[in-house]
Amino acid sequence: MEFTAITSRQNATLKHLARLAREKKYRLKTGEMVCEGEKMLGEALDSDIRVGAVLVRAGTACDDALLARAAAQGASLLTAEKALFDLATDVETPQGVLFSCERPVRQTVDFSSVRRAVLLDGLQDPGNLGTILRTADAFALDLVILCEGCTDPTAPKVVRATMGAAFRQPVCQMPLAEAIDALQQHGIPVYAAALEPDSVPLPPEGLPERSAVIIGNEGNGVTQAALDLCDHKLIIPMAGRAESLNAGVAAAILIWEMTKKGG
User: Which domain of life does this protein belong to (predicted)?
Assistant: First the structure.
């Protein structure tokens, strides 16, 4: 396996990876993100995501077949000593493989094929977003829609939290009003999870097999704009004394309620 050795901190690829790890605007501008680990590299390649560069820390044992697959698809293979390698990552104890790839975020959506979706309204915590994407992938949700004010789904912390679901779970970004209108136009009722006077408890039989749920911001909940546009408002019945649930946990419960009937 042939690698190009990086010997300077001014190396263009090294600087590119470092910016992808730290700058949202740069990720949006380039249409790329950075990931770490052989498992994630395999997920990217299996998903036909274009991989740009693979950087291996000197002395790291890697799967030659995996690297060969990346190279065959056009990726450049590079290596660097630890001091330089660490400049390209945002974690203190990184894995020995980093790579850049295109952002797996859809620009267009065919809503005629969507049965179940989650809309995220101003969700800010990377861990929560990663958990929701991982859960949506586990239950084969058709779509996760990120609306105004959401954290970047391709930020390294989010991608790590998805455990590979970032490459499997369909995700798009679009304005809230546009997303709700598109769902309703295709006969999909939109529910908002909110503590409102006219909210009703989640029905024992769960949600309809074709439905969408809005999850709001961790601190402020669902916006008034979303409440005005949704079809129904609901709450998750709780026997304890907690007033609310973590956004990621609430989303997981509602995703289960949307999908438990199967089909």
Answer: Bacteria
